[in-house]
Amino acid sequence: MALLTQAIRGTGDVLPADSHRWQHIEKTLLETAKLYGFREIRTPVFEHTELFVRSVGDTTDVVQKEMYTFDDNGGRSITLRPEGTAGAVRAFLEHGLHNEALPQKVSYVTSCYRYEKPQAGRLREFHQFGVECFGAAEPAADAEVISLAASAFEALGIKNLSLEINSIGCPECRAKFYDALREYFSSHKDELCETCLGRLDRNPMRILDCKSPVCKGIAKDAPTVLDYICDDCRDHFDRVKAYLDQMNIRYIVNPTIVRGLDYYTRTVFEFVSTDLGAQSTVCGGGRYDGLVEQMGGPKTAALGFAVGLERLNMIMQAQGCEVPQEKTCDVYIAPMGDNAAKMALKLATMLREEGFFAETDIVGRGLKAQMKYANKIGAKFTVVLGDNEIVEGKANLKCMSTGEQTEVQIPDGLVDKIYDLTISTSLQNLTDAIDEQFKSVNP
Ligand code: ATP
Ligand code: MG
């Protein structure tokens, strides 16, 4: 029976009590992206397996160990997306966005799937916010995308993230770096894990990203890519840094960052947090100037990043970042008897049509139980309707926080009254907030 009442390992639910938090996070991220001109793109959860193998790279952990791949009933190999960039690139090409005004800037919030060992901050279904910018080769684009990530974190109230940047060069300068890596790792052949042994020939940079402690230890003394990048790549990197300096975005150059996906070129970056434990990277991104062409499109410089939302939320919880309060019920209408129940439904509908949050009894409770429920859901106002109220066409509206009661005409007077009262309450709240502020400045 556990199968029916337990979610699959590494997956989770968002319950109604928490969904507001996630909506706030996602909305803030997408709206920040909008300020930079990034518009949302939505792509399918599954794609042809080949798309990920070709773009993410067949020597990466993601492709070699982590993909959810299956044959569908038509015998096609399908993979649940492990990341968002491949689908965005596919859509960019499929819909001819490369023929439109460049740069094309897209953002997304998506679920991703990776078969990994579940632990804090590492799930099998997780969520990413990401952006991709197509058709921008200048260092200003790198700086803008990094600045977008920094602003999004700031908008959520997150502090103390550190930005680490590096350049992993272009295919030309990387060839020399690969030779140096091959030479270095060849002298440690007996110690490398089996996966890395296989990578030695085809993609030695992947060894730098291996999670095995032994490989990690060996990688510590390996040659670093910054010593091998060509003049153009170095110039690009220097200009990215100059832009960041100018924007007062603090960063550390970390020459060991290579990123876990094959498509990156030149600038790569991560935002890391000490509030995350072992899984310290909350955001990873960089340039991928060769990917669009590699997927069959025209040569198109591009870049982007992805933020893990579960890790982001962990940081926000650890730092006590504020989330705006969820809207609660404006008016609860408590009917007694059949006629009152009909009127209650009518009133609730009128309120909802005006954008108020209204509830009434739909389970046939007595008055006492209804008031208890109204309290529980935090209703700001209640109206009790009995036969008398229906006959006389008026009822008492009670403010739950002050206990004050006002008479209203029903049905037509209620909506207006609620308008008046909610506006005066929000004005009062505003006045209180200003008073509070004033007191803290002039105690
Ligand atoms: P890690 O090194 O932690 O495995 P990664 O390099 O595989 O991360 P990316 O592919 O760059 O991660 O994905 C970007 C972000 O997505 C990560 O920084 C992280 O916040 C999040 N992420 C990646 N894998 C997972 C996962 N299994 N569970 C939760 N979040 C994840
Ligand atoms: Mg990973």
Explain this structure to me?
The protein is about 45% helix and about 20% strand. It is of the alpha+beta class. Helix 2 (about 15-35) packs antiparallel against helix 6. The mean pLDDT is about 95. The structure holds adenosine-5'-triphosphate and magnesium ion. Adenosine-5'-triphosphate binds near residues 83, 121 and 310.
Quick structural summary:
It contains 16 helices and 16 strands. It is α+β, with helices and mostly antiparallel strands and 443 residues long. Helix 2 packs antiparallel against helix 6 and helix 6 (139-155) runs parallel beside helix 10 (231-246).
Topology-level CATH name of the largest domain: BirA Bifunctional Protein, domain 2
- Tell me the name of the CATH homologous superfamily of the largest domain: Bira Bifunctional Protein, Domain 2
Distance between the termini: 62 Å
Q: Widest sheet: strand order?
A: 1-5-6-11-10-9-7-8
Which helices and strands appear, and what pairs or packs with what?
Blueprint: H1 2-5, H2 16-35, E1 39-40, E2 46-48, H3 49-56, H4 61-66, E3 68-71, E4 77-80, H5 85-94, E5 104-113, E6 125-134, H6 139-155, E7 162-167, H7 171-186, H8 194-202, H9 213-219, H10 231-246, E8 252-253, E9 265-272, E10 281-287, H11 291-294, E11 302-308, H12 309-319, E12 331-335, H13 338-353, E13 358-360, H14 367-376, E14 381-385, H15 387-392, E15 394-399, E16 405-409, H16 412-441
Parallel strand pairs: 1-5, 7-8, 12-13, 12-14
Antiparallel strand pairs: 2-4, 3-4, 5-6, 6-11, 7-9, 9-10, 10-11, 14-15, 15-16
Helix pairs in contact: 2-6, 6-10
The chain binds adenosine-5'-triphosphate and magnesium ion.
